[in-house]
C-alpha cells in the first residue's frame, strides 16, 4: 500500500500510539505557553512602562532572543539538568517536565517581546488620556493589558506555533523515549530516518493542520477584535 | 476620596515652555479664578494646546511656576481635559464613560445610570453600545466631553472641542459647556472660532507666537482689540 494511504489510515483509525504522541505534544506546548505567558506578559508590560538605565539593551536582547536556535536552548538546558549539572538534583532530564522547561525558555522571549511592543505602542496612544484621568500605575497596566487583549492573544498563538513546531530542544532534553517523551516533531525526525514513512507522514499532516488552525485562529481574532473594538 | 481643597485659583507665574531649541510659550503670567468661561484664542501654532496642557499638569514648565489653589502639584482629581484629538479606549461608547466614572471614584452601582445620563447629555444615547473607535470624529469629541464631565471636575479644560462638529452639534456642545459653567465648573477652552468666542461670553486670553498678548472681556476683545496681533487676527490676517 502506498505510504500516504497508510498514513491516512493511521489517522482515520485513531491509532492509539499516534494519538498518544499528539496528546503529549499538545500538552507540553500548551503548558509551555501558559508558563511563558504567566512570566512574559507582566514582564513585557513592565518593560514597556518603566525606564531605567540599560533598558534599551534589555529590549534589544529580548528581541534578539526571539530567534534563539532550539538546539542551543536544548544543549544549554541539557548541561544544566544533567546529573552532574547545577540543576541535576531535580532529576527531570528526559522527562516531559524538561521539555516544558525547554519550550518555555524558547517562547518566553517571543511573548515578552511582543507584549512589550504592543503595550508600549498602546501606551503612547493612551498616555495623555490616562494621565488626565489620573490612572495610577496598576490601573495603567491592567487597562493596557485589557485593551491590547486581542494583540496579546496573537502573541500567545505565535508562541504556541513556535513551540509545537520546534524539534531541537525537545529532542535533546526529552531524549525521544518511546511512549514517554516522544512528540510529533521528534517522531517525524526519527521515523523518517528509520524509513517508517506512514507514521512520519501522518504526524506531519497533523502538524500542518495544527499550524493552519493556529493561523486561522490568529486571523479570526483579528477580525473579531476589529468588529468588537474598532 | 476627593481632595477637599480647591484647585482654583490656577496661577501661572512667569511660565515658559521650551522643546529643545524651540520656545513654545514665553514668560506667561496668568491667574485663572472662579467665574466666567475663559477662552484661549490665537492662530494655529500660537501655543493654545501647550498652555492647556500646562494648566492640566500634563507637561511641566521649563521656566516659572504653576500653582493650583496654592499647591504646586496636586493630582488632577478635580480637573478634566478634552483633547483636541481625543483617544477612544477600545471599548463601547458607554464603556468609555464608565471607565472615566470608575477612575473618578464613582461607586460601581451608580456607574451605569450615570453613564447613560451623560451619553444622553451629549446626544449619544443611541450609540451607547457602538465601539467608540468606530464613532465619527464629531461623535468621538462629544464622547470625550461626556468622559470629562464624568469626572465631575472643578476645572474643565477643552481644546477646540467643536473643531470637527457640524453647526447643530457645535451649538449642542456650546450649550453643554455653558450649562457646566452655570453649574459652577470653571471652563478654560481653546478656540479659534470667533463666532464661538462671541457666543460663549466670558473673557479672552489671546496668544500669538507663544506670548500672551492680551486679556480682556469677550466683547471688549472683539470690539476694541488693543494689540496689533489681535487686530490682525480678528481681521483674518496672518500674524507674521
Ligand atoms: N514637542 C514639540 N517640539 C517642538 N515643537 C513643538 C512641540 N509641540 C508643539 N510644538 C510647536 O509649538 C507650537 C505651539 O503648538 P500648540 O499645539 O500649542 O499650538 P496651538 O495653538 O494649539 O495650535 P492649533 O490651533 O493648530 O491647535 C507649534 O508651532 C508647534 O509646532
Ligand atoms: Mg492646539
UniProtKB/TrEMBL annotation, chain A:
GO terms for biological process: transmembrane transport. PROSITE patterns: ABC_TM1. InterPro entries: ABC_perm_TupB-like, MetI-like, MetI-like_sf. The keyword Membrane applies. It is found in: Cell membrane. Keywords: Membrane, Transmembrane, Transmembrane helix. One of its GO terms (cellular component) is plasma membrane. It is a multi-pass membrane protein. The chain crosses the membrane at residues 30-50, 57-81, 87-114, 150-177, 197-218. PANTHER family: PERMEASE COMPONENT OF TUNGSTATE ABC TRANSPORTER. This is ABC transporter permease. It comes from Bradyrhizobium neotropicale.
Amino acid at each position: 500500500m502506498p505510504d500516504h494511504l497508510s498514513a491516512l489510515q493511521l489517522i482515520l483509525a485513531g491509532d492509539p500510539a499516534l494519538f498518544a504522541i499528539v496528546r503529549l505534544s499538545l500538552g507540553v506546548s500548551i503548558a509551555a505557553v501558559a508558563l511563558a505567558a504567566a512570566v512574559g506578559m507582566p514582564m513585557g508590560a513592565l518593560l514597556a512602562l518603566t525606564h531605567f538605565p540599560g533598558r534599551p539593551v534589555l529590549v534589544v536582547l529580548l528581541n534578539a532572543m526571539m530567534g534563539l536556535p532550539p538546539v542551543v536552548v536544548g544543549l544549554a538546558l541539557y548541561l544544566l539538568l544533567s546529573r552532574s549539572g547545577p540543576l541535576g538534583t531535580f532529576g527531570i532530564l528526559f522527562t516531559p517536565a524538561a521539555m516544558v522547561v525547554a519550550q518555555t525558555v524558547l517562547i518566553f522571549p517571543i511573548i515578552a517581546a511582543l507584549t512589550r511592543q504592543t503595550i508600549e505602542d498602546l501606551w503612547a496612544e493612551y498616555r495623555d488620556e490616562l494621565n488626565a484621568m489620573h490612572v495610577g500605575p496598576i490601573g495603567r497596566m491592567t487597562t493596557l493589558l485589557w485593551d491590547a487583549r486581542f494583540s496579546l492573544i496573537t502573541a500567545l498563538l505565535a508562541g504556541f506555533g513556535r513551540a509545537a513546531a520546534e524539534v531541537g530542544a525537545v529532542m535533546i532534553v526529552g531524549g525521544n523515549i518511546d511512549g514517554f517523551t516522544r512528540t510529533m516533531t521528534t517522531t517525524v525526525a526519527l521515523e523518517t530516518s528509520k524509513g517508517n514513512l506512514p507514521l512520519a507522514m501522518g504526524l506531519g499532516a497533523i502538524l500542518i493542520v495544527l499550524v493552519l488552525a493556529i493561523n486561522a485562529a490568529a486571523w479570526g481574532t483579528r477580525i473579531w477584535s476589529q468588529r468588537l473594538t474598532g | 476620596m476627593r481632595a477637599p481643597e480647591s484647585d482654583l485659583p490656577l496661577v501661572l507665574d512667569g511660565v515658559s515652555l521650551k522643546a529643545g531649541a524651540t520656545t513654545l510659550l514665553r514668560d506667561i503670567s496668568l491667574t485663572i479664578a472662579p467665574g466666567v468661561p475663559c477662552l484661549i484664542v490665537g492662530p494655529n501654532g500660537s501655543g493654545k494646546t501647550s498652555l492647556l496642557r500646562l494648566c492640566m499638569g500634563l507637561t511641566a514648565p521649563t521656566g516659572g511656576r504653576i500653582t493650583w489653589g496654592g499647591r504646586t502639584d496636586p493630582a488632577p482629581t478635580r480637573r478634566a481635559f478634552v483633547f483636541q484629538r481625543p483617544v477612544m479606549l477600545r471599548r463601547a461608547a458607554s464603556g468609555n464613560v464608565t471607565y472615566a466614572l470608575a477612575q473618578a471614584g464613582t461607586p460601581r452601582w451608580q456607574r451605569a445610570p450615570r453613564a447613560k445620563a451623560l451619553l444622553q447629555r451629549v446626544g449619544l444615547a443611541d450609540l451607547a453600545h457602538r465601539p467608540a473607535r468606530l464613532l465619527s470624529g464629531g461623535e468621538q469629541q462629544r464622547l470625550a466631553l461626556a468622559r470629562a464631565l464624568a469626572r465631575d471636575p472643578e476645572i474643565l479644560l477643552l481644546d477646540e472641542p467643536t473643531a470637527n462638529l457640524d453647526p447643530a452639534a457645535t451649538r449642542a456642545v456650546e450649550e453643554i459647556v455653558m450649562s457646566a459653567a452655570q453649574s459652577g465648573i470653571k471652563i478654560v477652552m481653546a478656540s479659534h472660532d470667533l463666532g464661538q468666542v462671541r457666543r460663549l461670553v466670558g473673557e479672552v486670553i489671546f496668544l500669538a507666537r507663544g506670548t500672551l498678548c492680551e486679556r480682556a472681556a469677550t466683547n471688549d476683545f472683539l470690539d476694541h482689540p488693543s494689540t496689533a496681533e489681535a487686530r490682525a487676527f480678528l481681521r483674518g490676517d496672518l500674524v507674521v
